[in-house]
# Entry
Amino acid sequence: MASIPVTIKHSGKTYPLALDGSQPPRVFKETIYQSTGVPVDRMKVMIKGGTLKDDDWGKLALREGMSFMVLGTAGELPKPPEKKIVFLEGFVVDRCLHPQGLVELNRVVCLRCRYGRRGIG
# Structure
């Protein structure tokens, strides 16, 4: 089967590509990766009536001028923080030396030392 000119849409941009129906869809996704920068494992290719699988074209009738929509983000995913994030709201401290504070949801929050005591107020 000869190459068929198709268009793909990603992030508001349109890319003209050539689609070879004799190759598996994974090869077409690699071509999309070269154009958009979206890795194949994080890519979803939408067609009218469903999504494109990796292994076969299914019941998709390939024709000239078809339009595909690509979902996915290009680039690396953000890395998790090295240190675990600890929030002060999770602490329960009964040793606050400052009696004045802000009463908030049945909890006194000391404005000086920023610790809270539950059940007071």
Q: What stands out?
A: The domain at 3-71 is CATH 3.10.20.90 (Ubiquitin-like (UB roll)). The chain has a mean pLDDT of 77. Helices lie at 25-36.
